[in-house]
Structure formats: structure tokens, C-alpha cells
Amino acid sequence: MMRKIGAACALLAALSMAALAQTPPATTNYPGSKPVRLIVPFPPGGGTDILSRLLAQKLSEKNQWTVIIDNRPGAGGTIGISEAVRAQPTGYDIVMGQKDNLVLGYYLYSGLPWNPEKDLTPVAHVAYAPLLIATAADGRFKTLDDVIAAAKAAPGQITYGTPGLGTGLHINGVMFEKAAGIALNHVPYKGSSPALLDTVSGHVDLLMSTVPSAMAQIKAGKLRPLAVTSAQRSSSLPDVPTVAELGLQNFDNSTWFGLFGPKHLPESIALELNTQVNQLLADPSIQQAILAQGAEPKAMSMTDFDVFFRKDFKDAKATVEALGAKIQ
Question: Which positions make up the signal peptide (predicted)?
């Protein structure tokens, strides 16, 4: 009997050692005193930047980390992603990716030197946000029907601004044109802020925006939201109808935000980041802060975020091909 017990103990010890060998090492010393760079692939002031700065501030307050924002705008957000892909997989360089640059951008831009499925590590989903069609508060359009009627009367004359070629908001504009049977004139900018300012000042007729990017100007009474392009109304703008409610059926387009690291990022570091972000997203005060910006907080495990990202990446190929969009 003693021999059997001894053998069983030896077996349990061996299994425990094997399990420990497969368990990621503890990361209680991460990031230590070293700063973490959070790359933002868009200029200051836009929805991605606002959300990134909120996350960086809360991570610093909660854990005494030093999180530095590094804005790397351009080419629909793909320049910032390229910077993250080139970084060393140490956990000290992460990026706030989103549907625009990671999912749509890959299929829109020719010759990108990276593939997001192969060259990045999904770490933590942060939030999603409805997209918005808006105009200046003192502009001539009061409803989306006004826009459609004017565009049909003068094809190609109504202008709309976006943060740039190949962004999800550019795709949003193309989808709106096709769904409404109209032709608009796309005016790409280098980021959300200049597009927003030109819309408010009347230099362009319409704005394609995320709700977070536009929220401050809506609250200030300078921007009139005409419709959101998600399947449901935004909880931040409950009085603004969806495009489907206004007659454009099967129109559902929104964006999401999430943290990514370079490929080969150690699982222990990725899990630590995921845990810390999810703990923040469970805090009612932080949830309210994100909602106040027009985004919807949503935590995911690393596994769930990976599955979500890969499905969206696969689905986006068909969307882009159906629209016939391509940027050389």
C-alpha cells in the first residue's frame, strides 16, 4: 500500500511540475518602473485618442504605471499599426487598434508590409462605438431625408468629411451612398479633428464620425447628429434615430477599439494587461466616463477577443470587395 501511495505522490508531483512548466510566469514586476508606450494611430482629439488617454490615465492611477501616449497618425491609421508591428515584444509598446486600421485598412491599402492576424497579438477589447452622420447645427440639413433629397437633385455636390481615405468612416460614407442610391463628394482629412472643425464651420456639408469624436461638439450645440449607423440607437444619444429607422434597411455599421501588442508578446504580459484593462472596465465610474464620450465599454477575455477579432477580419474582406473599394 505504501508503495502505491508513494507512486501516486510521485505521479502527482510530476504532473504538478509539468503544469507549472506550462503556466506563464508571474508578472508582478511588470512593467516595473519602465514606461509603457501606448501608440495611437490618429491625431490628438479624435475618438481613438480620447479613449486611449482615458485608459492610460486610469492605468496610471490604479497601478502607478507610467503610460505615455504616442500619436502616430496617417494613412487611415495604418502608420501607427506599422509602428507597433516593428516594436519589440516586451510589453512596453502597445497600440490602440480598431476596426478601421486593423480590419478594413488591411484590405483597402495595397502593399501593407504586415498582416494583423500574423503580426499582432490581440490583448484586450476596450469598447465599441456607433458611427454617426452629422452636419453643422446651423446648416441647411435638418434630417437625413433632407440630405438624400438634396443629393439626388445635385449628384456629387454634397460633400462629406472623414478622418481619411481607407478609414471605417470612409467606408461608412460609401455604404450610405449605395444604400440611399446617391452620389456624394468625399473629402478626406488627416484625422477626426480637422474634419469635425470644417463641418462645424460649414466648409463641408456632412461628417462621418464615431460618436466619441463628435460628442463634445454635439454637447456644445455646434453639431447636429442626423443618424447613427448601428443596428440600435446609441445609449449616449438615445434621441438620434438609426439609419434603418429612417428607411435604409439592413444598415449596421459600428467600430470597436482594442489593445494589441507585437507578435510573440509573452502570454504572461498579455494576460496581465488584459486583467488590468478588464478590472478598469468593471469600475462603474470608468464605465460612465467611457459612456460620456459616446462609446460603449465592453470587456473580453483574451481568447474571446482573439475569436472576435479574427471573425471581424474575415468578414471585412467580403464587405470591402462588395463595395469595390481599394486604395493604392
Answer: 1-21
In the structure grid, which three cell numbers stand for residue 102, read together?
486593423
Name the helix (H) or strand (E) containing 5: helix 2-22
Q: Read out DSSP for 170-235?
A: HHHHHHHHHHHT---EEEE-SSHHHHHHHHHTTSSSEEEEEHHHHHHHHHTTSEEEEEE-SSS--T
CATH number of 130-228: 3.40.190.10
Q: Give the number of other CB atoms < 10 A from CB of residue 324.
A: 8
Cα dihedral across residues 243, 245, 250, 255: positive or negative = positive
Q: Reply yes or no on whether the pLDDT at 8 is more than 50.
A: no
Fold that domain 36-129+255-323 belongs to in CATH: D-Maltodextrin-Binding Protein; domain 2 (3.40.190)
Spell out the domain ranges in the chain. 36-129+255-323, 130-228
36-129+255-323 and 130-228 share one fold: yes
Predicted confidence (pLDDT) per residue in 122-151, tens digit: 999 999 988 999 999 999 999 999 999 999
Q: Rounded to an integer, what distance in angstroms lies between the CA atom of residue 288 and that of residue 48?
A: 17
Q: Is the pLDDT of residue 162 over 90?
A: yes
Report which of residues 13 and 209 the model is more confident about: 209
pLDDT digits (tens, 9 = 90+) for 305-316: 999 999 999 988
